[in-house]
Amino acid sequence: MSTSPAQKSMEKLVEIVKDVEKNYKSLNEEWSEFKQNENKQRKTPVNIPYTVYEKDKDFILIHKNDLARLATEIAQLKENLPKVLNRKFITSIGRFDSIEEEVESVRKGQKLLELESHHWKARCETAVSECQIEKQETLQLRCDLQNLSQQLSQQSDYCSSLGAACCTLLWRVSRKEEGIEAILGGSKVDEFFCIVSSTLDGYLAAYKDDWPIEPSDETNFILALCGTVTNVAASAYGRNFLITNQHGRQLIDTFTVFLAEAPVKKSAVLKNLILMCVYNISINQKGLKYLCSKPDIMSLLAWHLQEETDSENRLNTLRIIQSLISDEDNINIVHQLRELLPATYLQQLAVDRDKNIQDIALEIVMDLRNISNES
Questions:
Q1: pTM above 0.85, yes or no
Q2: Which of residues 141 and 51 earns the better pLDDT score?
Q3: Contact (Cβ atoms closer than 8 angstroms) between residue 301 and residue 321
Q4: Can you tell me the distance from the alpha carbon of 173 to that of 136, in angstroms, rounded to the nearest whole number?
Q5: 326 near 367, Cβ under 8 Å?
Q6: Which of 99, 230, 245, 283 is the most buried (most CB within 10 A)?
Q7: Please, what is the angle between helix 246-261 and helix 236-244, to 10°?
Q8: Which residues of 87-110 are buried (b: 16+ CB within 10 A; e: fewer)?
């Protein structure tokens, strides 16, 4: 750890004080020696020759000018010494011991800080080493994740392709009455209805905001599932099974939710299969009651009829509406229809370019008139 400027200044001041103290002692010794010599010379007779006696070995003879110069220097020292040895200097001398203790304490603190610095440096090196190991492990995990993602994507593509192929075959089998009875007579029919519901929900959640344009195995898989259910509902036995089965009714609920939430003008083929299935269900008396019990069914159909541009979808929607108003016990459906689809709009449909839409619209208008006359 580096020494601070304050510590350097303190150490320098201590050295200066030591030098001054040493010089002061030396000057005092020289001055005492000089006074002794001068006193001895005064006691010596004037006519003493320049001969140094054996007993006066400790004395030397000096020139008068040298003595005068030495006296001048001593006078200057006497004059300047009080300036150096002032109260501040004496106070500093008194504080010398405490400063030395403080310096020693600082040195000990410095040593402790150096030890602590070495400790943290070692911990830092250990942490850096562990970080490098973790980075390598993370990189390896990313590589493994990428490989697993690729494998999962390949398995997903394979499952979609296999599901599309199998369900397309099942769709073809369901065109015949014997095939429908075989499908519904199996032990896995409830599981099949659940698979259709969950798969359709997942498909809608995944592509609601970005509906696929190009056909894919996944799309064909969904179409084959819904087409199979539509064929099942096309038979009297199949639609009665659907409406009396708990999982079948849940599947019908899933179909109505799909009609409400699927993007408009982007899912015509799939919606057409679902609309045909709902229409087939409405032919059954129990199915009609179940559909009429849904509070928003008529508003959903009216909205769908006005928003959709596909002729097949509009035609199947009109067929469902015509089937729902045939329930004589549920007059609320008729009132809802008149509020949601005014007579002027139905008259516009009666002159539509599509001949089938014209016929269904005219039949609905006539049915509404008959209901009004009966009431």
A1: no
A2: 141
A3: yes
A4: 55
A5: yes
A6: 230
A7: 90
A8: eeeeebeeeeeeeeeeeeebeeee
